[in-house]
Amino acid sequence: MNCRRTFIKQAGIAAAAGLVLPSFACVKSSKAVGLQLYSLRDFLPKDPRGVIAKVAAAGYKEVETYGYSAKDGFWGLDPKSFKNLLIENGLTAPSGHYGIDRYIQDGNEEELKAFIAAASAIGSEYVTVPYLGDNLRQNADDYKKVAAKLNTAGALCNASGLKIAYHNHDFELKPWGDTTGLEIMLKETDPKLVDFEMDIYWILRSGKDPVQLFNAYPGRFTMWHVKDMDKANNEKNIEVGSGGIDFKTIFKNAKKAGLKHAIMEQENFDMEPYASIKQSQEYIKTELL
């Protein structure tokens, strides 16, 4: 894409028509870069206000929450207070990670409804399932049961103007006959109710190709975790653009995947964490989006 050429062409058309051209932004930089706040889990509980301010200062426009509970809220802040904190720092939280193992296990919707209420209160679009306990994924039939529960949860979310999403690790790519847990969930869930958040790092750790999944299930992966892999140690994260993942090729398929939110995550740091997240944000914004 040649943004400058497009701008000049549009400017010429506008001038010829005597129109005032609105501010022009290339598609490449139209999406905000998000941060999964779990990256800063060592700091958030002690100083949520200071951490959120530093995240904004690092250039992020979106955050993804984790760890909410009805008792402690978002690191001691109730949803309204947390929403105000985000607004003060020019941030939004389109997604949050909420563990729903208990709902999947017994079908009790009370905790799930509390999560939906919290997500709604902070202006989120998604209630995202971050993990499945071992006892919930022992065979292919278990994944079908999970998919059915996700559909029901998706209907509950939809009633509040939200959508449910599922975030993968690598265990969902374990084969069950000629399929995998992730493919079972993709096939058994209603696309109108359930989206997926692809953790690109974990897909590659499992030996699978993200682009093949985009081709097989177009439009289903509306969020991505953008987390790079150290070239020498695939169990280690490193700043985006410094590792072994070819993000440029993957991002060429963003439209096919249905990407709406690119969310950086890093689980370990060799440099000062705020310098690290700033470096990753700048790379994603300038080189990938």
TrEMBL record:
Q: Which InterPro entries match?
A: IolE/XylAMocC-like, TAT_signal, Xyl_isomerase-like_sf, Xyl_isomerase-like_TIM-brl
Entry keyword annotation includes Metal-binding: no
Is Secreted set as a keyword in this record?
no
Origin species, per record, is Pedobacter quisquiliarum
The residues forming the signal peptide are 1-25
Q: Which controlled-vocabulary keywords does the entry list?
A: Isomerase, Signal
Q: Where is the Xylose isomerase-like TIM barrel domain?
A: 52-285
Q: What is this protein called?
A: Sugar phosphate isomerase
